[in-house]
Write a structure and sequence with these properties.
The protein is an alpha/beta fold. The chain is built from 17 helices and 17 strands. The strands form 4 sheets. Strands 1, 2, 3, 4, 5, 15, 16 and 17 form an 8-stranded mixed beta sheet that branches. Strands 11-12-13-14 form a 4-stranded parallel beta sheet. α1 (79-87) packs antiparallel against α17 and α3 packs across α4 (168-180). The protein is globular. The chain starts with 11 loop residues before the first strand and ends with a helix. The chain binds zinc ion (ZN).
């Protein structure tokens, strides 16, 4: 078991390494980066950085050092998954359905008592009545919105997650209360509203490209109103010529989009579901978490969906990928809004950490460069959280969450898949230790 507590780690110097700072598309060859007290204390050309005598020295020759990755859409309920993120180089997550459990983890991770990524968390989902998910807050009276916001802020949640069944009046009251109390809305486009409405209300993020299919329907499409049930089919009725205007509207509103493509690519039933459950990374998922993904599990919402809906969801992924270059262009034109790398991990067959690398591949397959794809999970992710001066790039004073890689990630995102080592808030975790801990867990799961 890896424990982070006990004596604080000595300074760490990674020498003669190629830095991938992610602030812009560049490489800094033969550099040395010094970590102290959880932060980047110095960096510069090797030889110009004084390495303290008690520092642990890592030879970075031929290797690449980049900021840790962020999964900007997770649902983590199982403590085991916190380690899977780290083992895969995910050093920050944004959790989209919060509970006191997450506040506890966030504090323990920050204190170094628990190995896990830096955690941002929503409060409980704010929905209408009846809420889609148990445990949500049901907001049915606009006059109660301010109190709901105050309670979530007071509890320590980082942002608010509006959801599908909020009425227009309640959503608008929630947006006003969020603005007044300075806590961002990050979430869905409620079914009673259109994408344009949430942009106008100043929602910070839109998840799953919600509202996009409706906003870009071709003329004559049978889908006038798009909801959860027909959305996958509606993606096939999108007029691509309408996408640039939607992207421009997002950028004009400075609203970020987190497409979470991988979750739809993994919608599966029957034999296809069994095949996903047989993938090698499933050994590292706890039996409790996996039980909810069995095709027979009552909690597995895919079980009750018709096969045609599942097929349409899989087939909507290439349609959704076509949005990404338009978002990139809109971001370039305005320097606002942008793309976030996120997985919807926690949903069936979407495994913590491993799935973020699949999302990276989907971003590249959509036409983004490796740099653009990685940025959505580093520098841009931090900017979206208004933390661009804390993490997401390599600079003095930034949090030391780093990945040491065998290959150049700007050539191929696959090089980020298996870091040779992860620096987690200043602590060096070499691959051998990460792998040993993964295997220890897999063995204990198999023994149950
Ligand atoms: Zn989600």
């Amino acid at each position: 078991m890896l424990f982070l507590q006990s004596p604080p780690p000595p300074p760490l110097a990674i020498e003669h390494v190629t830095l991938v700072p992610m602030e812009r598309e560049t490489l800094l060859v033969d550099h040395t980066l010094l970590v102290r007290d959880g932060e980047i204390a110095a960096l510069g050309p090797a030889g110009t950085v004084a390495v303290p005598e008690d520092a642990r020295r890592i030879d970075g020759r031929g290797r690449f050092l980049m900021p840790g990755l962020a999964d900007m859409h997770v649902h983590v309920w199982d403590e085991n998954d916190l380690f899977l993120f780290v083992a895969c180089g995910v050093t920050t997550v944004r959790n989209l359905f919060g509970d006191p459990l997450h506040l506890g983890w966030r504090a323990r991770i920050a204190r170094g008592e628990l190995v896990g990524p830096r955690l941002y968390t929503a409060g409980p989902i704010i929905d209408g009545k009846p809420a889609v998910w148990p445990g949500s807050v049901e907001l049915t009276d606009p006059d109660e919105a301010a109190a709901v916001v105050a309670a979530q802020k007071e509890a320590g949640y980082d942002f608010l997650k509006p959801y599908a069944r909020l009425s227009r009046a309640c959503y608008e009251a929630l947006a006003i209360a969020g603005a007044e109390q300075d806590i961002a809305l990050m979430g869905h486009v409620p079914e009673a509203l259109a994408l344009g409405d949430v942009l106008e209300a100043g929602q910070r993020t839109v998840e799953h490209l919600g509202g996009w299919a409706e906003a870009a329907q071709r003329s004559g499409s049978p889908f006038v109103h798009v909801d959860f049930l027909n959305e996958a089919r509606a993606w096939h009725q999108v007029d691509e010529a309408r996408l640039p205007a939607v992207a421009a509207a997002c950028a004009a509103a400075d609203t970020w989009n987190c497409p979470t493509l991988v979750v739809l690519s993994k919608w599966a039933k029957g034999a296809a579901a069994e095949a996903l459950l047989a993938r090698p990374e499933m050994r590292f998922v706890s039996p409790e978490a996996k039980a909810a993904w069995l095709p027979t599990a009552p909690l597995n919402y895919l079980t009750s969906l018709p096969q045609a809906t599942v097929d349409a969801a899989n087939a909507s992924v290439p349609r959704m990928q076509r949005v990404l270059p338009h978002l990139r262009e809109a971001w370039r034109a305005r320097g606002a809004g942008g793309l976030l790398l996120g997985t919807d991990m926690g949903n069936p067959y979407v495994v913590a950490g491993f799935s973020l690398h699949e999302e990276l591949e989907l971003f590249v397959a959509a036409g983004l460069t490796p740099y653009e794809a990685l940025r959505a999970g580093t520098a841009d992710a931090a900017r979206c959280m208004e933390a661009g001066d804390e993490w997401g790039t390599l600079a003095v004073g930034m949090r030391a969450d780093l990945l040491l890689l065998a290959g150049n990630p700007l050539e191929s995102v696959a090089h980020a898949r298996q870091p040779l080592g992860v620096v987690l808030h200043g602590r060096w975790l070499p691959r051998e230790e990460l792998t040993a801990e993964l295997e220890r867990r897999a063995a204990s799961f198999e023994a149950r």
